[in-house]
Amino acid sequence: MEATSHPNLISVAAAIARLNCGRTRFYEIVNSGQLPMVKCGRRSFVRSDDLDTYISCLPPYVPVRVRATTA
Q: Do the domain assignments include residue 51?
């Protein structure tokens, strides 16, 4: 079975697109241990379950209220 057709493995490019981040930021996340990668031959992949877990653990966005300035 070819790794690219395995439904549980996501290519690095697809993971970057799903996270909507740059390649440098993606590898910062991987190198920090927050998102594990696996190798299949020379190619690197992310398990879809690991990516889902990483995304679900991200903190929610909390908008910052801007105070009106009084003169």
A: yes
Q: Which domain holds residue 8?
A: 3-56
What secondary structure letter does DSSP report for 58? S
3-state helix, strand, coil in the chain (%, to 5): 40, 15, 45
Give me the mean pLDDT over the 30-57 stretch.
Answer: 96
Counting the structural domains of the chain, the total is 1
28 sits in the region (left: phi over 0; alpha: psi -120 to 50; else beta) called alpha
| pLDDT-based confidence at residue 9 (cuts at 50, 70, 90) | very high
Which CATH number does the domain housing residue 7 bear? 1.10.10
- 50: phi then psi, degrees, rounded to nearest 5: -65, -40
